[in-house]
């Protein structure tokens, strides 16, 4: 074979594709069910074969060359998977990547209903880090979609090859354990009193700052009781009594009903329920009309509508 057209080992390509999809070596190793050292070795071997750096060692993200290479090989690997499924007379599964909190607390409890209603659809739910960039290169297959949360002040740019729909726009409000509220001396009198409370943050203070801005509360400094990377982890810390977290109906599950968490409500001024962003379903152009994804999209919007009616006063 002409060396110009040498094809890298499939194991190396699979490891690279898994790294690109998941955003991390250990997550890729978990997906492939191999040791993380094997993924690292495959990535190094692939970089040596192609003669360029595919991932930035400092940030852990793909380089521009890596993104370009992944966008080119992902459809080819998907084609191999489809061809293999076809010859085995199997239907390729529908993969839905999803922010952890939405996946665990809202979508997962409803998937049994989806599977009973549509037993012919093989749905793979893959929770991912809420802040993992899911760029167009990651959804160029016709059996792959993504559900993510985007704040209004941080909406991703529109991409020509990607279609999307906002599936929910839930109000965001502070919650804490009853023990935490007691330790704070009871419910705050005013919204501004929360600036003296132990506030649990995600990756940074951006969500809390947006919330205070939406309620017209000046906040020169946002107090931090701990940074915990993702919304569902901040809520876990709130259940443990470590502070006040921001949540919404899609993250809380039955926490409010069973008393694990309590809404933090000022006693001396009204607090409007304010959305800060939306949950969005997106997929590539060719995936959008995939029969399985069309069914899932319709079902998902129906379930969100039921949730909305249930929460209405």
TrEMBL record:
Gene3D superfamilies: Periplasmic binding protein-like II (3.40.190.10), Winged helix-like DNA-binding domain superfamily/Winged helix DNA-binding domain (1.10.10.10). This is LysR family transcriptional regulator. PROSITE patterns: HTH_LYSR (PS50931). Belongs to the LysR transcriptional regulatory family. GO terms for biological process: DNA-templated transcription. The keyword Lipoprotein does not apply. InterPro entries: LysR-type_TF_proteobact-type (IPR058163), LysR_HTH_N (IPR000847), LysR_subst-bd (IPR005119), WH-like_DNA-bd_sf (IPR036388), WH_DNA-bd_sf (IPR036390). It comes from Acetobacter indonesiensis. Residues 8-63 form the HTH lysR-type domain. It holds the Pfam family LysR_substrate. Transmembrane segments: none annotated. One of its GO terms (molecular function) is sequence-specific DNA binding. Keywords: DNA-binding, Transcription, Transcription regulation. PANTHER family: HTH-TYPE TRANSCRIPTIONAL REGULATOR, HTH-TYPE TRANSCRIPTIONAL REGULATOR TRPI. SUPFAM superfamilies: Periplasmic binding protein-like II, Winged helix' DNA-binding domain.
């Amino acid at each position: 074979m002409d060396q110009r057209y040498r094809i890298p080992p499939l194991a190396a390509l699979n490891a690279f594709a898994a790294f690109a999809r998941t955003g991390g070596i250990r997550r890729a190793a978990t997906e492939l069910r191999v040791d993380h050292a094997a993924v690292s070795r495959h990535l190094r071997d692939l970089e040596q074969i192609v003669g360029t750096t595919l991932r930035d060692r400092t940030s852990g993200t793909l380089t521009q060359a890596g993104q370009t290479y992944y966008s080119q090989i992902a459809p080819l690997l998907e084609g191999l998977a489809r061809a293999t499924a076809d010859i085995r007379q199997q239907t390729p599964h529908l993969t839905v990547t999803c922010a952890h909190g939405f996946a665990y607390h809202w979508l997962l409890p409803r998937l049994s209903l989806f599977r009973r209603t549509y037993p012919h659809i093989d749905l793979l739910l893959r929770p991912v880090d809420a802040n993992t960039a899911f760029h167009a290169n990651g959804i160029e297959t016709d059996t792959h979609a993504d559900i993510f949360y985007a704040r209004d002040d941080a909406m991703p740019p529109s991409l020509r090859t990607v279609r999307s729909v906002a599936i929910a726009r839930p109000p965001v409000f502070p919650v804490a354990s009853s023990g935490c509220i007691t330790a704070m001396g009871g419910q705050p009198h005013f919204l501004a009193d929360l600036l003296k409370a132990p506030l649990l943050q995600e990756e940074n203070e951006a969500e809390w700052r947006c919330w205070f801005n939406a309620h017209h509360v000046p906040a020169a400094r946002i107090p931090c009781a701990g940074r915990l990377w993702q919304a569902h982890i901040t809520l876990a810390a709130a259940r443990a009594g470590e502070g006040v977290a921001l949540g919404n109906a899609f993250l809380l599950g039955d926490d409010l009903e069973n008393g694990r968490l309590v809404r933090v409500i000022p006693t001396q001024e009204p607090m409007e329920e304010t959305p800060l962003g939306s949950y969005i379903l997106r997929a590539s152009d060719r995936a959008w009309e995939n029969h399985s994804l069309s069914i899932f999209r319709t079902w998902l919007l129906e379930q969100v509508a039921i949730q909305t009616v249930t929460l209405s006063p």
